[in-house]
Design a protein that fits this description.
Elements: E1 6-16, E2 19-30, E3 36-41, H1 45-53, E4 58-59, E5 64-68, E6 70-76, H2 91-107, H3 110-126, E7 129-135, H4 140-153, E8 156-163, H5 177-195, E9 205-211, H6 219-232, E10 235-240, H7 244-254, H8 258-264, E11 272-276, H9 282-290, E12 294-297, H10 299-305, H11 312-317, E13 321-324, H12 336-356, H13 370-384, E14 400-404, H14 436-445, E15 451-456, E16 459-460
Length: about 475
Amino acid sequence: MQRAVRIRGTFAHTPRLGDLEILYDYLLVTDSSGVVTHFQAAQTLESQTVLQKLSECVTLPTGTLIVPNFVDAHLHAAQFLYQGNGLDLPLMEWLNKYAFKAEERLDGDPTLARRVYTRLARRLIHNGTGTVLLFGTIKEETNLILAEVMQAAGLRAFVGKLSMDISSRPSYKESSAQSSLQAAHSFVEKCRGLTANLPSHERLVEPVLTPRFVPTCSDELLAGLGKMSATENLKIQSHLAETLDQVEYVRKERGAEDMDVFDRSGLLTPRTIQAHCTFLDVPSFKHIHSRETAIAHCPLSNSYFSAEPFRLREALDEGVKVGLGTDIAGGYSLDLMNSMRHAVSVSRMRQGSKQMKADSDDGKSLAIDWKESLYLATKGGATALGLATGAFGVGLSFDAQEIRLYDPQTGMGVGALDFFDLEVSDVSGDAETVTVEMVEKWWGLGDARNRAGMWVQGAKLDISPL
């Protein structure tokens, strides 16, 4: 697969929280493994020298820019089966009625599983997501299908076979902690084996240890997974302090906070991504930061299931690594652009509530802005997963999407975007006619109609209609 990229045009990224850079008339070149080897203004002497040596180079039209792919840091692949349905119950009841049933169904029907996962991969690409952290199911075969499908689609995917030796659904659990640990080890080996014969830059799929959450995992299982992660250098994903009923359940059954249960099991590590964390306070964030553990913020599903909004600003202020997740199907939208928008909305409501309390105004806002949310959806998620992506620069993998804002000939906006002044102006020769306000409009109103291309590790993906 061709991974050598040569593009000249406008690039936009958020290399730091809240810092949007729009880079006009830049030249980006990658090597044959999809890693950026040159990224400078096209008019520099070095860029001109590079251009003279290139046999071909794509020049983007005015009104088009390259931005990083989105990183979905929390998604339940099997629950894509019923995306958009079943959001009427508290979490622990919802799991029994919808989630476990759907996951068990796919475990019993590999043909259906492959069909669901193939459609999921296409939808992710359609929505600009190039990297995804996936919860799977219990059965090894089903998770290997998931890994195969993601690799074939060209997506960067972290696939987790669920580890569960406790369940409120008797038919959906593993028989013991030891059998669960053996199954996790077997999946890791086979998942790694799927790409073992490929060059390192083409190995897009990795296994992830996935204790579902404390209520479905015994102390023995959690401790065993902690040792396996350390020994095999494996990433870990789970759910932490998500909802009131879940938090109270753990306190009653374990006599501890679930953060402490994970910690004593060796599962809060620099390789760990914990979803939700809505019931964590500032001292807890300090502890999470000390462990270098990352958090996947899923604002839409939190609105349905959690009695508390995630304290996003406080987590960021404490230096916690945070990315965004869709949490399909606890969240109904697979489009991470909606997660960005909901993250801003929830944070602004938190700030509004704070302002209503006269004694709580310390001058520090709890709100985030759209630029910060774009960071969380790109560089923030990549950092949470330990990836050299999410922004543009020499040495980084080229994971990107081409976004069309307007037609340079007519000034007409693409999709839902309107730029009325451009419709009566000649913009065809102005390379800098992409403003911060235009990017913001795309953030607020843009959709798949604006997406003209996708790359993962330098390889161009098929974005044709489903």
